[in-house]
Amino acid sequence: MAARSREDHPALKGIRPVVTGGIVNALLVVIKITAGILGNSYALIADGVESATDILSSAILWMGLRVAAKAPDSDHPYGHGKAEPLAGAIVSLALFGAAVAIVFESIHNIRTPHHLPKPFTLYVLVAIILIKEILYRYSKRIGKELNSMSIQADAWHHRSDSISSAAAFIGISFALIMGPGYESADDWAAIVASLVIAFNAYHILNPAIAEMMDAAPSAHIIEEIRTIASKVDGVTGLDKCHVRKMGFDYYVDLHVEVNGNLSVFKGHDIAHRVKEAILDVMPNISDVLVHIEPDGN
Fold first, then answer.
1. How far apart (Å, rounded) are the C-alpha atoms in residues 281 and 232?
2. At 288, phi and psi to the nearest 5?
3. What is the tens place of the pLDDT at every residue in 35-89?
4. Long-range contacts made by residues 217-220, C-beta under 8 angstroms, separation at least 24?
5. How confident is the model at residue 205, as a pLDDT?
6. What are the b/e assignments for 74-95, b being 16+ CB within 10 Å?
7. Of the candidates 107, 17, 103, 117, the residue with the CA atom closest to the CA atom of residue 57
8. Out of 208, 238, 253, 268, which residue is the most buried by the measure of CB atoms under 10 Å away?
9. Residues 43, 36: contact at Cβ < 8 Å?
10. How far apart are CA 32 and CA 144, in angstroms?
11. Which of 197, 6, 191, 18 is nearest to 94 (CA)?
């Protein structure tokens, strides 16, 4: 099986949505803060500051994907794939930080008297929600295609922005309808949104940590490996099958049982055919280490 070129590495394919998100976030920082100042919306200003931290998250993710795409070397014989879930974990922690920052900023604004937001801020928020939802769906699709936790985490970063903007929209609408005395409605809505953001961050962080701890992948991957190996001529049984994920790739340790009277040469040949069969059918597996055992052992 031909080795995958660095240009075809999934990590490099995942950089495009990250760069796109970073550029869009840079534009939204200017739009949100400007509209927030002109429209008396402290929720929009806080949202703009949070978007500025998103740019840093995108830069971290970009660096993580670049490292993950590096070929194995003498110091990293299994490659640099762990940089990918590490970047995802950092982005998840950034989501937690954004949720906490929104809560503190909202509490400050609730305790500080301010004017009612201006109606035009609602149109700005609708545009932001649409843009962020498009980015979420785009990044989520790429993340699922590449089986990338970090890109899916970045997608949820876009969704968190969409949620916080939707909460601000509801709060500002309520404040404008009810009038003076309800200026802080958008701030209360932002606190509710921060809880949703923190919940999503937790569900992104869990699988990223599991991957860094070499947790076993889903059962169907192991079952598929066993099914392929069992169909190779000369294989009489299977014992252990250990699989770990390294970024975008999987590494397999498989114990195969063969007739104990076979020569070393024949056993070696069966091991190679098992490995080739698995790699041919499952391109996301980078390497298979086959251990030959006599059947009935």
1. 13
2. -130, 120
3. 888 887 777 777 777 777 778 778 888 888 888 878 888 888 888 888 888 887 8
4. 217/243, 217/244, 217/245, 217/250
5. 85
6. eeeeebbbbbbbbbbbbbbbbb
7. 17
8. 208
9. yes
10. 30
11. 197
Domains of the chain: residue spans and CATH = 6-212 (1.20.1510.10), 219-294 (3.30.70.1350)
Q: How far apart are CA 151 and CA 110, in angstroms?
A: 35
Could you tell me if 277 and 241 are in contact, meaning their C-beta atoms sit under 8 angstroms apart?
A: no
Q: What's the pTM?
A: 0.68
What tokens does 194 get?
A: 């921060």
Q: Return the exposure string of 248-276: e unless at least 16 CB atoms fall within 10 Å of the residue's CB, then b.
A: bbbbbebbbbbeeebeeeebeebbebbbe
Is the model's pLDDT at 169 over the cut of 80? yes
Instruction: Give SS3 for 1.
Output: coil
Evaluate whether 77 touches 96 at the Cβ level (below 8 Å).
no
* Banded model confidence at residue 3, pLDDT cuts 50, 70, 90: very low
